[in-house]
Amino acid sequence: MKLGILASGSGSNLQALIDAAGRGDLGPGRIAIVGVNVAGCGAQSRAEAAGIPTFVLPHKEFPSREAFDAALAAKLNTADVELVVLAGFMRVLTPGFLDAFPRRVINIHPALLPSFPGIHAQTQALDYGVKVAGCTVHFVDAGTDTGPIIAQAAVPVQDGDTAASLQERILAEEHRLYPAVVRALAEGRVTIDGRHVRVRSA
Prior knowledge:
Structural class: alpha/beta
CATH topology: Rossmann fold
Order of helices and strands: EHEHEHEHEHEEHEE
C-alpha cells in the first residue's frame, strides 16, 4: 500500500513512521511521498534526509481551501497514493479532498476522542481534571476530529503534570500506535461499517 504523509511541523510522527518502515514494521505499507504546507519545516527535512520524494505546497498561495485541496490531491495522485496519513498536518481538509480519498485519510489526535477535539488537547484535559488522557487514530471526515475511531492508547495523568509533560508521554504512545494502525490498514485488517471500526489481530 502506497502511503502519502502530510505534515506541517516538526515531523516526529513522520519520523516514527519512517523508522517503522525501515524496520519493516509497516508490513506492506510503503511511504511513497511526503507533502508539507510549510516550507522548511522539520517534517520536510526528515523526509528529505530519508530520501523520500517530498513536495512543498504552501496553502497561502491558493485563493481558497478548495483550490489548495484540489492541488494537494493532484500531487498525491501523481504518486498513486492509496492511504493518506496526516502527521501533524495543521489544515482542516475540505469534503472535496476527502471525496478523492474515501475512507482513506487517517489522523492521530493527542486525546481520547470524542473528548477534547481541536487544538491544545492536553491543556483541555488538564483543565477538565481527567485522570486518564491518551491518543486516538481515526478516519478523517468533514468535522474536526469527529471521524470513526480506529484505535486508542491511554496515558495516566500524573500529579503535577503540565501540558508539556503530558504531551511528551502522549507523544511516545502516538509513535507506537500510529505505525501499528498503518500496518493494520496496509494488511487489510481494518473494516468499517458506518462508525464502527474493527481491527483484526495480526
